């Protein structure tokens, strides 16, 4: 899957967040949604897609420190 191929870049501090978001929108999201026009989405499918998106965004933004 494309996520695992770009994972080192998403974790890298040398790559800006803007670039990481652009990579997510142009590389990862289209692969995950490929063929989705033909899907009959259930509630579980929608939740699975939300979980996947949150996982990628957590990788991009890193841990959130609450003071």
Task: List segments where confidence is low: pLDDT < 50 over at least 5 consecutive residues.
Answer: none
Helices and strands: which structural class? mainly alpha
Query: What's the tally of helices?
Result: 3
Radius of gyration: 13 Å
Count of β-strands: 0
Task: Describe the global form.
Answer: flat
Q: In percent, how much strand structure appears in the residues?
A: under 5%
Mean pLDDT: 86
- Give the terminus-to-terminus CA distance: 36 Å
Largest sheet: none
What string gives the helices and strands in order?
A: HHH
Helix content: 55-70%
Give the SSE map:
Layout: H1 2-11, H2 17-32, H3 43-61
Helix pairs in contact: 1-2, 2-3
Quick summary:
67% of the residues lie in helices and 0% in strands.
